[in-house]
Amino acid sequence: MSRIREKFAQLKRDTAKGFIPFVTAGDPNLDISREIVLKLAELRASVIELGVPFSDPMADGPTIQLSSQRALLNGVNIRNIFDLVSDVRKKTEVPIVLFSYLNPLFQFGLEKLRDEAARIGIDGILITDVIDVEANEISDMLAEKSLDLISLIAPTTSDQRIEKISSLSKGFIYAVSRAGVTGARSVSSSAAESLVTRARKYTDLPIAVGFGISTQSQIEDVWRYADAAVVGSAIVSEIAKSNDSSQTVQTVEAFVTSLLPQVAKSST
Amino acid sequence: MNYQPNERGYWGEYGGRFVPETLVSALDELTAAYFVARDDGDFRTELESLLKDYSGRPTPLFYAKRLSETLGGAKIYLKREDLNHTGAHKINNCIGQILLARRMGKKRVIAETGAGQHGVATATVCALFGLDCVVYMGTEDMRRQELNVFRMRLLGAEVREVDSGSKTLKDAINEALRDWVTNIDTTYYLLGSALGPHPYPLMVRDFQSVIGKEARQQILDMEGRLPDYLVACVGGGSNSIGLFHDFLPDESVKMIGVEAGGSGSKLGEHAARFIAGSGVGVLQGTKSYVLQDNDGQIASTHSISAGLDYASVGPEHAYLHDLRRVEYVSASDDEALEAFKQLSKTEGIIPALESSHAIAHLIKIAPEMPSDTILIANLSGRGDKDVNTVAGLMQRNQE
Chain B contacts of A158, Cβ < 8 Å? Predict the structure, then answer.
């Protein structure tokens, strides 16, 4: 069983819900980024989404745009990210999903990417700007090495599309909470709940909700109707705020600890 | 060869739809609305009447006698898209898309702009129909196209500055896409070039193909035969594909697309995707030739003209390039500047710096051609917007 399926199965046995943090690989630098990932695993992240920085992140708000820029200024590329994951794998079995735009993966070579990713213990890949036929082709190709292509659904996705997407999905389904780019928003969105309700008609896969989740009460709300909550920009902005990079890991730890509802802390 | 994309918007391996899931329903809705409108007689009648009465079409095909004689070779004709209302070919596409936006019931229109001509044309049609208009523009482009920023504001549009990345067209498109994904229910994205996700490259091409349709009839009336060459500048590629499209099946008509050669051949110094390119990639919703580094990060570009300063190119051009149906060449900043001055002096026509790239190339090739060769260059826009930039450059070159 894949690490992702195993994790969600375990959560189900424990009647617990998942927490999926996102960080950009290489922000503020590769060493600290690796320590942050290890810390997140220690803080009981169910899955970690590792962002591959891209120069033109059209689906991202300012926080992740700036984070990508910081990583790119450090010259971070896919090979560095593989090294980071290899190091992390020596210490933790937390499922790791690469979160990327297509072009950096395409230039690396998708089959080469699959083979290396599988070898070093990456569990899934989420590609923001790939849909439909192209997504199916990539999904089949990744599946040959037991890698999951994580699919996205959005409030604007029709029932017909949800049915098609979920029938081909692997690992878990990422439900985008609202129309828009990534980034913290204070208001919780009822669009997300109705999206998850619609998706439940077509799939038994775990459903994670992301985009705009930055507070404990939002996580609790998502846990009421979905299987996991994704928190990205809120963590990334803590990384950005931490001027002294020797303090970054502690800053992230303090923030995530304050963010997680009690039930998660006692669930495992 | 029919030069039409398949139902998923691919010309060969280029094009398609590479977008976040949130945009899919809006693109499906747009595609459906466009195909219905395209075959609807009322839509066509309204489009044609606005092109004629509002924009002043057909634009003339002008025999540039003095330029032809000075260069001493081919007979040069200029397709005068600069004589359109707002001063460039961009209005052709804007009139088409604004009619579509109205049919779709959208009240808010967003656009990106590089040189500002598409932004001005969008602001213009929004003013004409009383729709809210927001134009995204890179701060670098706002600086070099100050006059167009003022025009857009005068027309009632809100110009939002984009200070990310290279602060040019590419970054303006990113911001427009972010706006669209956020306001998808209310907003129509009026994309200005033959790029982006399907159906934009097809739709923009169709609306711009009026250029070639007219030119074809005009040259037949004036010369009794088809031209030997078509020349046009290629940024995203809308004016060039607009001129080329109707002639694609005519094998005797050779076509040349002129990219921005910028100030040098190193990555970052030009916007010549085909000439000094770095292969195929996916940018802003479409698969095409892309200027990028080895890690797939999009390269910065440079051109004297904001409208050609873009890291990718419309997917149909990528297809025509691989087929060798169109030859792609480049003209440098300096060559474009010289062409700008030469056309102004010999014909009394001040061309846009974008169009000056096409003129620069015909200055290179026309003298070598027999005098019975017929060449049509697309004068995609007028150069009034560039006068400040050129004045600055001429002063600097003198110092």
Answer: 25
Q: With an 8 Å Cβ cutoff, is B281 touching chain A?
A: yes
In chain A, residues 178-217 whose CB comes closer than 8 Å to chain B: 179-181
| CATH number of the CATH domain containing A134 | 3.20.20.70
A60 noted as active-site residue: yes
Query: Are A58 and B174 in contact (CB < 8 Å)?
Result: yes
In degrees and rounded to multiples of 5, residue A29 shows phi and psi of -155, 175
Strand (E) or helix (H) holding A127: strand A124-127
Q: Distance (Å, rounded) from C-alpha B178 to C-alpha B165?
A: 15
> Given the DSSP bridges, would you call strands A207-210 and A18-24 parallel, antiparallel or unpaired?
unpaired
A104 touches chain B (CB under 8 A): yes
Q: How far apart are CA B177 and CA B19, in angstroms?
A: 9
pTM attached to this predicted model: 0.96
Average pLDDT over residues A228-255: 93
Could you say which DSSP state residue B159 is in?
E
Residue-range definition of the domain harbouring residue A114: 3-266
> Is B285's CB within 8 Å of A129's CB?
yes
Strand partners, A49: A22, A97
Rounded to two decimals, the ipTM of the complex is: 0.95
> What's the total number of domains in chain A?
1
Instruction: For residue range B155-167, list pLDDT tens digits in order.
Output: 999 999 999 888 9
Q: At B138, is the secondary structure helix, strand, or coil?
A: strand
Helix H or strand E encompassing B260: strand B254-262
CA distance B122 to chain A (A): 22
Instruction: Give the catalytic positions of B in this structure.
Output: 90, 112, 380
Mean pLDDT across the stretch B102-106? 97
DSSP percent split of chain A into helix, strand, coil, nearest 5: 50, 15, 35
Across the interface, of A59, A107, A161, the residue whose CB is closest to B296 is: A107
Looking at the complex, report in whole angstroms how far the Cα of residue A61 sits from the nearest Cα belonging to chain B: 8
Q: Residue B378 is inside which H or E element, if any?
A: strand B374-378
**A56 part of the active site:** no
- SS3 per-residue string spanning B154-196: HCCCEEEEECCCCCCHHHHHHHHHHHHHHCCCCEEECCCCCCC
Q: Could you say which of A157, A161, A180 has the minimum Cβ distance to residue B181?
A: A180
Tell me the backbone φ, ψ of residue B390, rounded to 5 degrees: -65, -40
Task: Look at residue B396 in the predicted model and tell me its pLDDT.
Answer: 84
Q: Do B182 and A180 touch (CB under 8 A)?
A: yes
pLDDT tens sequence across A118-136: 999 999 999 999 999 999 9
End-to-end CA distance of chain A: 20
Q: Is A167 on the interface with B (CB under 8 A)?
A: no
